[in-house]
């Protein structure tokens, strides 16, 4: 007996998700708003491929010695490693360097697209997700960083997130560099320990000062019993780092004064404080000082940041999987990365940029009731009552007339009968259906059933007799008046 064919199991890969029409439509509306703000600030669109040569992505990947660690990689036929892009910044650096002679300087661009992480997936952690970036390349002044922070604030408000529900938090990595210098962690031989310190500071919101203190020391044991090895700093060094992250005050001037004391003796640290002072003056001049906050706890994870760093944090509460109220947190961030483009050229190329996590921001807007994830209205469906060629030609003509009038419509092309066709129209969220059987055709008429009004009336009618007598939301019109009748039905639905 022949072997039975084994069916392939339909399954989506771990860390990836399918997206419905409603989700795609909501994302496009949200991104249209972001795009309009970015363009208002003079940024222009550019698109780079999802694949880059792995060496072009830089040394800031999780493990540059293993091309498949952290990124999805393949070998080209010329044995060069190519990887799916890890973010949208490294491809921009490559694009700018490759087109250096023809691009204006500074070069202001925005990009939106999928990025890929070959990492262990988990709740809310995907291997494919969308980012929306804006960058200014070839700008040495922090005026560009300040402008991106202001643009981030404007973007949140245009999306309907009110002042007080968000804050743009700003710091400068030069200040942290000064702190690390003062505790003896400068130089390449301390690169790994510096990264451990950065990661510890980045956990401030999650673990608080005491948790960070443990991570700066010997390490931290969490509730599950897992131990995270710490940076093993001395008590004096830990105290210096904690004085840095706790330097925040009620206003920007006081915070900067505290930071100046922390980095006293470090020229690089002082340079960072001075740059934040310049940015604060620009925020104040433009009326953004209440929306943008100088915050020493912002460090950003990647080591390529070289100056100002910033994050957009949403301040409202949401309920987590355990039913607990928690602050929503960050939906985007960025900073200055003066060394990234320079890898491709002999001279320094300063740059700064900002990235929005599209999926996370969509979740935030949904929690605020600012995002419509309901299925949008589908097409008008012309039902097929008779399947002979003459009837099909007439149905197709109806669809063509509706489309020529700008009405989204379709001819039912399945093989089922009347009941199944009505069920199909419901699942398509059709506003109405067009019905023409032999009797209507003989009289040059069509029936139009308003499915929206019909659903409303059906909820109010309690017995079949009343339903049959009322024939709710169904009209019969001359075939040559069909388009106008459909327009009237759609207009009535829009008013409700």
From TrEMBL:
Keywords from the UniProt entry: Aminoacyl-tRNA synthetase, ATP-binding, Cytoplasm, Ligase, Nucleotide-binding, Protein biosynthesis
Signal peptide range: none
Residue stretches making up the Aminoacyl-transfer RNA synthetases class-II family profile domain: 28-379
Subcellular location: Cytoplasm
Binding-site residues for L-histidine, renumbered to this chain: 87-89, 117, 131, 135, 300, 304-305
Gene Ontology process terms (BP): histidyl-tRNA aminoacylation
One family name in Pfam for this protein: tRNA-synt_His
EC number(s) given by UniProt: 6.1.1.21
Enzyme class: ligase
Chief location: cytoplasm
Reactions catalysed: tRNA(His) + L-histidine + ATP = L-histidyl-tRNA(His) + AMP + diphosphate + H(+)
Gene Ontology molecular function, alphabetical: ATP binding; histidine-tRNA ligase activity
Annotated CDD domains: HisRS-like_core, HisRS_anticodon
One GO CC annotation: cytoplasm
Domain of life (superkingdom): Bacteria
Keyword presence, Zinc: no
SUPFAM superfamilies xref list: Class II aaRS ABD-related (SSF52954), Class II aaRS and biotin synthetases (SSF55681)
Stated family: Belongs to the class-II aminoacyl-tRNA synthetase family.
NCBIfam families in UniProt: hisS
HAMAP family given in the database record: His_tRNA_synth (MF_00127)
Subunit structure: Homodimer.
PANTHER family: HISTIDINE--TRNA LIGASE, HISTIDYL-TRNA SYNTHETASE
Protein name, entry field: Histidine--tRNA ligase
Species: Bartonella choladocola
Name of the gene this protein is made from: hisS
């Amino acid at each position: 007996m022949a072997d039975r064919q084994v069916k392939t199991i339909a399954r989506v890969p771990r860390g990836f998700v399918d997206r419905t029409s409603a989700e795609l439509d909501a994302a496009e509306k949200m991104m249209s708003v972001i795009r309009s703000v970015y363009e208002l600030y003079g940024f222009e669109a550019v698109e780079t491929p999802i694949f880059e040569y792995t060496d072009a992505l830089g040394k800031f990947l999780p493990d540059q010695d293993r091309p498949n660690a952290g990124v999805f990689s393949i070998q080209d036929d010329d044995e060069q490693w190519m990887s799916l892009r890890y973010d949208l910044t490294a491809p921009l650096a490559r694009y700018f360097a490759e087109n250096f002679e023809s691009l204006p300087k500074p070069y202001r661009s925005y990009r939106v697209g999928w990025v890929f992480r070959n990492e262990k997936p988990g709740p809310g952690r995907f291997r494919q997700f969308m980012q929306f970036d804006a960058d200014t390349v070839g700008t040495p002044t922090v005026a560009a960083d300040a402008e991106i922070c202001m643009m981030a604030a404007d973007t949140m408000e245009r999306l309907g997130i009110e002042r007080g529900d968000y804050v743009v938090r700003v710091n400068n990595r030069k200040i942290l560099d000064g702190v690390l210098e003062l505790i003896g962690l400068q130089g390449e031989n301390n690169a790994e320990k510096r990264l451990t310190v950065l990661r510890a500071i980045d956990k401030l919101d999650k673990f608080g000062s005491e948790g960070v203190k443990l991570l700066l020391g010997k390490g931290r044991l969490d509730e599950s019993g897992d131990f995270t090895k710490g940076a093993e700093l001395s008590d004096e060094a830990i105290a210096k780092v904690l004085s840095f992250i706790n330097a925040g005050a009620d206003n920007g001037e006081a915070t900067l004064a505290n930071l100046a004391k922390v980095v006293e003796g470090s020229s690089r640290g002082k340079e960072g404080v001075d740059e934040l002072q310049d940015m604060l003056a620009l925020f104040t001049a433009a009326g953004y000082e209440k929306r943008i906050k100088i915050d020493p706890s912002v460090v950003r994870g990647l080591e390529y940041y070289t100056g100002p760093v910033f994050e957009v944090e949403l301040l409202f509460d949401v309920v987590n999987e355990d039913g607990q109220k928690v602050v929503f947190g960050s939906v985007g961030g960025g900073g200055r990365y003066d060394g990234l483009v320079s890898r491709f050229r002999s001279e320094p190329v300063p740059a700064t940029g900002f990235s929005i996590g599209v999926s996370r921001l969509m979740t935030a807007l949904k929690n605020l009731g600012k995002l419509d994830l309901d299925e949008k209205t589908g097409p008008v469906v012309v039902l097929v009552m008779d399947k002979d060629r003459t009837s099909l030609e007439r149905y197709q003509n109806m669809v063509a007339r509706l489309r020529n009038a700008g009405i989204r419509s379709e001819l039912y092309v399945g093989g089922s009968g009347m009941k199944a066709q009505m069920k199909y129209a419901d699942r398509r969220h059709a506003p109405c259906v067009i019905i023409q059987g032999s009797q209507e055709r003989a009289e040059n008429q069509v029936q139009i059933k308003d499915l929206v009004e019909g659903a409303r009336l059906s909820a109010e009618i309690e017995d079949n007799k009343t339903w049959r007598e009322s024939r709710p939301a169904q009209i019969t019109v001359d075939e040559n008046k069909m388009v106008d009748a459909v327009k009237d039905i759609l207009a009535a639905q829009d008013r409700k």
